[in-house]
Design brief:
This protein has 381 residues and is mainly α. It is 78% helix and 1% strand. It has one domain.
């Protein structure tokens, strides 16, 4: 009897390890879908409110002297609502509070330069995106972004591409190109010039900054926040809130300085008076935009933490056909409908997400298989 009693605790422990891994993977999948939902929700609300804002402001019918103004305000709005995240940050308990208190002083020397550099980078692409959307439109802006994110992911994050990820990127580019939503801030064709050097620079720099920030955020999570052991050896959601709060704080400071240094703050009163729906709706639209940007940003950072910057960008871009449908339903833009091209783009977005999710599924399945293999080898030994 004694010969058979020895292996039982070991086999029981092995099965518990396998069940624990499956449970963690289930929680991981739930977190991924939740963050993806936040990105889709944030993207939809931001585009709907931006269209409402620029329709009420008559921006598409403005001359070039006023067409490209208000970009510092939009950049500030994108980052300024971060204080609403502070209560959630303290509500999420840390898995290792003792480690946090012991490592806080030492950890901040490594974390602070990361947050400052990311905050400046976020302020740069917030400002340039606000300008680029008015100058060159929406669709080509986001498509260029995914190509740069793929390149940065390969060189900075050492991401290994397989055929399913490549297929997902191709479908995503097609979905965004044919399914980008209409944008009321784009000037009329007779009020803007063809793509010149200035337009291409305005197009490239914000996409470059955004793609770089995604990959640096992933690198920051993996090489700084985890290795400082401020939250133990695990990736926890509190890291997302900490990074978003600190980075948005720095970006808000930079955008506030830009708003006052450029003199744009003097135009706020005129903007509110010119708003068709009145000052109340002007303020509500800006508040709604600020909150929507935070929903989008938390979902974005959550997927960067859980998966990668490239996957995050794929999810962000796959929201375009859905947002286009909502814009068609909400606004009566001339020549804007959900035709066969956008229906095809919606199908392409589904296929893009399915391809990437299948790649993630294979990776998670491989982890369980490797654990079972190790357990079998240990039991045989």
């Amino acid at each position: 009897m004694e010969e058979f009693q020895g292996p039982e605790p070991r086999s029981q422990m092995m099965s518990e390890n396998s069940r624990s891994l499956e449970l963690n993977q289930r929680k991981w999948w739930i977190s991924v879908f939740f963050c993806g939902f936040m990105i889709f929700t944030g993207d939809s609300l931001v585009m709907l409110l931006l269209n409402f804002f620029y329709v009420q402001d008559n921006r598409s019918e403005s001359d070039q002297d006023r067409q490209y103004k208000g970009t510092w305000t939009q950049a500030l709005i994108q980052n300024a609502a971060f204080p609403i995240l502070i209560p959630f940050f303290f509500k999420f308990s840390s898995p290792n509070l003792e480690t946090v208190s012991n490592q806080t002083n030492n950890g901040w020397f490594r974390v602070l330069p990361l947050y400052v550099s990311l905050g400046v980078l976020v302020s740069v692409y917030s400002k340039l995106y606000a300008l680029a959307k008015l100058y060159v439109g929406w669709g080509i802006l986001v498509s260029t972004q995914l190509i740069l994110t793929s390149l940065f992911s390969a060189f900075i994050n050492r991401l290994k591409f397989n055929r399913w990820i490549i297929i997902s990127i191709i479908f995503t580019l097609a979905a965004d190109f044919f399914g980008s939503p209409a944008f009321a801030g784009t000037p009329d064709e007779d009020e803007t010039d063809a793509y010149d050097i200035k337009a291409w620079l305005i197009l490239i720099f914000p996409t470059l900054a955004f793609s770089l920030s995604l990959c640096l955020m992933q690198l920051g999570f993996e090489k700084v926040l985890v290795k400082t052991k401020r939250y133990g050896n695990k990736k926890v959601f509190r890291m997302v809130l900490e990074m978003q709060i600190c980075v948005s704080f720095i970006a808000t400071l930079v955008c506030t300085v830009g708003l006052f240094a450029s003199g744009e703050f003097k135009e706020l009163k005129g903007d509110s008076e010119r708003f068709k729906k009145g000052k109340t709706y002007y303020i509500l639209s800006l508040v709604g935009l600020a909150l929507s940007w935070q929903v989008w940003a938390v979902g974005l950072l959550g997927l960067v933490l859980l998966v990668s910057g490239l996957f995050t960008d794929v999810v962000h871009m796959c929201a375009s056909p859905v947002v286009a449908l909502l814009v068609v339903l909400a606004f009566d833009f001339m020549d804007d409908d959900f035709g066969w091209q956008r229906r095809g783009a919606l199908l392409g977005a589904v296929l893009a997400l399915a391809s990437y999710f299948y790649s993630l599924h294979k990776t998670k399945k491989k982890e369980i298989a490797e654990l079972n293999k190790r357990e079998n080898n240990n039991s045989e030994a």
